[in-house]
Write a structure and sequence with these properties.
disordered N terminus, alpha/beta, single chain, two-stranded parallel ribbon, about 10% strand
Length: about 350
């Protein structure tokens, strides 16, 4: 058995499970369901198919009492080194009821792997949490935010032993967003097709995922930064004709992030490269180029006006004050951005 550990990252925990470096108790909780679902599958795979009738127990907390869970955990495995007991939907029972499991967790059976799954919520119960910290592993599954999606994609690409060009990284961010299931599936697909050590390029993404390397949110923002109206409107028309891979809300979210960050860039007091990177939370100076170009073409007043126009798009796209098609609204928004004179007075 592994020595007790308090917390681990998702990749690190998966590696420990794969090499059978195990603890007697695991508490999986948090808002992001994808990580928890995948870890539960990993724990299930510890038991060979032919042994699952005897050594794998899946219990549902709302239907199984705490006493039943503890009784099952105290059984001995049948002709095997250990049994796996998975308690699902633990978030659905009262905290004081769940907390009673601390009686078992304080003295767990060494031949049982107990997995407590609180999918979509943080587990409560001070005594249970303290007992798991002492004798097992706690994994908190956190949702990705727009601000940390790029580092998450970069880390996964490194984990798959791939490299990525900056433009390709931005394309993946814009296409996948914070959908972890799609993120892991698409990068897993690229790893399988391209092979270890390969470079993920815009061309590779276009060929294998179906995102155009010339007509995407990255290129739209680049054309808007340069005030290249012809290119910007051509991209909007491409989006209109290919709506499945180019939803307007994803595009407008990217535009909002761009101009919100541009405003931070414009107000940053430390005008050095390091100062800008710290203010924007960037790891690579390459990403600063977008804001350097945009700052030459949009002053602070214009940036504020653009953010206001984006917020107005959000309202109108919900049918408030407008019945226009969403791509007509997007075209109007791009026109307003490109022609903005800034707030006056």
């Amino acid at each position: 058995m592994a020595s007790p550990a308090q917390s681990l990252t998702f990749p690190a925990l998966r590696k420990m499970i794969a090499r059978r470096d195990l603890s007697p108790v695991y508490l999986l909780h948090g808002e992001e369901g994808y990580f928890i679902d995948e870890l539960v599958k990993d724990f299930e795979s510890l038991v060979p198919e032919e042994e699952r009738d005897f050594n794998l127990y899946t219990l549902y907390a709302p239907e199984s009492g705490v006493e039943t869970v503890m009784d099952v955990c105290r059984r001995y495995p049948m002709m095997a080194e250990y049994q796996v007991v998975i308690v699902k939907e633990a978030q659905a029972i009262r905290a004081d009821v769940l907390n009673k499991l601390h009686h078992y967790v304080s003295q767990p059976t060494p031949t049982t792997i107990l997995v407590i799954s609180c999918r979509g919520a943080l587990a409560k119960g001070k005594e249970l949490l303290a007992a798991v910290k002492k004798n097992g592993v706690i994994f908190e599954s956190k949702k990705l935010s727009e601000r940390n999606i790029l580092p998450a994609i970069s880390d996964l690409i490194k984990e798959k032993e791939l490299n990525v060009e900056p433009k390709a990284l931005s394309m993946l961010r814009d296409y996948i967003g914070t959908d972890l299931s799609r993120l892991y599936n698409e990068i897993g697909k690229l790893a399988l097709i391209l092979g270890r050590g390969a470079m993920i390029t815009p061309e590779a993404i276009e060929r294998n995922i179906g995102i155009s390397k010339d007509y995407n949110n990255f290129e739209l923002i680049d054309s808007i930064n340069q005030r290249n109206a012809a290119k910007a409107f051509a991209i909007v028309e491409y989006f209109r004709n290919n709506p499945k891979n180019n939803p307007t809300m994803m595009t407008v979210s990217s535009l909002f992030n761009q101009f919100s960050n541009l405003l931070i860039y414009q107000y940053t007091r430390d005008k050095t490269q390091g100062g800008y990177m710290d203010a924007l939370g960037l790891k690579s100076p390459w990403a600063l180029k977008n804001y350097e170009v945009a700052a030459r073409n949009y002053n602070v007043r214009q940036t504020i006006d653009v953010i206001s126009a984006i917020r107005e798009f959000d309202t109108r796209s919900k049918g408030i004050g407008s019945r226009q098609n969403e791509y007509d609204l997007l075209k109007d928004l791009v026109f307003r951005i490109l022609t903005t004179r800034g707030i006056v007075g």
